[in-house]
Automatic annotation (TrEMBL):
Presence of the UniProt keyword Disulfide bond in the record: no
Name the UniProt record assigns to this protein: UDP-N-acetylglucosamine 1-carboxyvinyltransferase
Lineage: Bacteria, Bacillati, Actinomycetota, Actinomycetes, Micrococcales
Keyword entries, A-Z: Cell cycle, Cell division, Cell shape, Cell wall biogenesis/degradation, Cytoplasm, Peptidoglycan synthesis, Pyruvate, Transferase
Organism: Rhodoluna lacicola
Cited function: Cell wall formation. Adds enolpyruvyl to UDP-N-acetylglucosamine.
């Protein structure tokens, strides 16, 4: 298991450059399965979720090349048969296999899906996905080591309403409806920037998709789609992570490739907390301008709200703000487990079952610890920590980099699910650490 020994207390300063978003790139790779010809995806990062999806596509016969500078070509011409995929070997830590359903049903009439990975930040059921697929006419059978899907009468457009604007379920609809017969109308859709970029890709392939106000997406099914050529949307979650790292370590980080528009909500909060930023043509500079950081009350939400994936890095910065901050996590019921390690390092964080600081959410009156009160500023001291999940792991690393003394952080490989060249970036920012496998 990989381990980093970090000597903290040194501000992170310098430049990091982003590639495409993990939450878009992996879905764009699956979309290539819908095309008759090859696709090209630019700015594809070398992260482990991309590796996992590459392996799954290759198992199905897709030819993939990925150059050093991030150009990925995907040729699905030889996709021949559905495969039962070994859960441990291939689904790994990724949630993407569930999105293979629609494209494989269109292409092969059958799909086998292994159990899913992803961060353990809640129960993360896939009931909406299956309900959506049944609406299109899919038949679903649970097997011992996964799920088998078939479409004996083909896939037909449907009127679908999601009980919650789930990102994955919206993508499931898009990837299935584009080649289904007839019209699909999805209400209650998620409208994250990564979903809009997936829609742009599908449109390049020949799909007809319109996005109305009030979360309604309409798709007119077409018989065939071509390949695409696309530059992936930048990773706004990685951008927000480095922005928080700059605040927590009293640093100054230029994030190349970050753009204002997809980060408006984050930038508003960053400014309220006392962080400074300068928006340039080729990226955003995030820095601690000196003085006290300020506490904040916020709740995470679906887009255009404050993204849940920003919450964990922000909490570390808030341990250095003067006063009480309140965070109400409304997207996942169990995303505060990572704070135990921060408390061990000297942070004052209390977790509550109640919906604090905002409106009641789906998790209120239930036994979920989904609100946090952070009291600061608290000096952080070194500790031995184990990375629990992707963003929690990033936060732990930042806490260790901000803390006085030498920390040992294990299970660090999880961070490579979503941060390309993580160790190189830390080196470029002047971090003091050693790494061992
Ligand atoms: C690979 C990827 O893109 N991951 C992102 C995606 O995850 P993912 O697509 O898994 O997240 P969803 O938007 O689907 O999940 C949101 C909520 O809906 C619930 N739900 C979802 C599906 C379902 O069938 N039943 C159900 O109850 C989930 O448990 C969760 O509470 O969107 C999340 C919310 O922006 C982000 O945090 C993740 O980084
Ligand atoms: C929760 C996340 O990812 P995933 O859905 O891939 O687990 C994340 O990126 O923070």
């Amino acid at each position: 298991m990989s381990q980093i020994t970090v000597t903290g207390g040194k501000p992170l300063k310098g430049r990091v450059d982003l590639k495409g978003a993990k939450n878009l790139v992996t879905k764009a790779m699956v979309a290539a399965l819908l095309g008759d010809g090859p696709s090209v995806l630019k700015d594809t990062p070398f992260i482990s979720d991309v590796e996992i999806v590459s392996r799954l596509l290759q198992l199905h016969g897709v030819k993939i090349e990925h150059t050093e500078d991030g150009v990925m070509s995907l040729d699905p011409s030889n996709v021949a048969s559905a495969r039962m995929i070994d859960i441990d070997a291939h689904a790994g830590s990724s949630r993407i296999p569930i999105l293979f359903c629609g494209p494989l049903l269109h292409r092969l009439g059958e799909a086998f899906i292994p159990g899913l990975g992803g961060c353990h930040i809640g129960d993360r059921p896939i009931d909406y996905h299956f309900e959506v697929l049944r609406n299109f006419g899919a038949v679903i059978e649970e097997l011992e080591n996964g799920t088998r899907l078939s479409a004996p009468k083909g896939l037909k457009g449907a009127k679908i309403s999601l009980p919650y604007p789930s990102v994955g379920a919206t993508e499931q609809v898009l990837l299935t409806a584009t080649r289904a017969e007839g019209l699909t109308e999805l209400s209650g859709a998620a409208i994250e920037p990564e979903i809009m970029d997936l829609i742009a890709i599908l449109q390049k392939m020949g799909a007809i998709i319109s996005v109305d106000t009030d979360r309604v997406i309409r798709i007119e099914g077409v018989k065939e789609l071509s390949g695409y050529n696309h530059r992936a949307l930048f990773d706004r979650n990685e951008a927000a992570s480095w922005a928080c790292a700059a605040l927590a370590t009293n640093g100054d980080i230029f994030v190349g490739g970050a753009r204002q528009q997809e980060m408006t909500t984050f930038l508003n909060v960053y400014r309220k907390v006392g962080g400074a930023f300068e928006i340039e043509d080729d990226g955003i500079r995030f820095f601690h301008p000196g003085g006290d950081l300020k506490p904040v009350v916020l709740e995470t939400d679906v887009h255009p709200g404050f993204m849940t994936d920003w919450q964990q890095p922000l909490v570390v910065a808030l341990t250095q703000a003067k006063g009480l901050s309140i965070i109400h996590e409304t997207v996942y019921e169990n995303r505060f487990g990572f704070t135990d390690a921060l408390v061990q390092m000297g942070a004052q964080i209390q977790i509550y079952r109640e919906c604090l600081g905002g409106t009641a959410c789906r998790f209120g009156q239930r036994n979920f610890n989904h609100s946090a009160v952070i009291s600061g500023p608290t000096p952080l001291h070194a500790a031995d920590i184990r990375v629990p999940d992707l963003r929690g792991g990033f936060s732990h690393m930042v806490a260790a980099l901000a803390a006085k003394g030498t920390s040992n952080v294990t299970n660090v490989q999880l961070i490579s699910r979503g941060y390309e060249h993580f160790l190189q970036k830390l080196t470029d920012l002047g971090a003091d650490f050693t790494y061992s496998e």
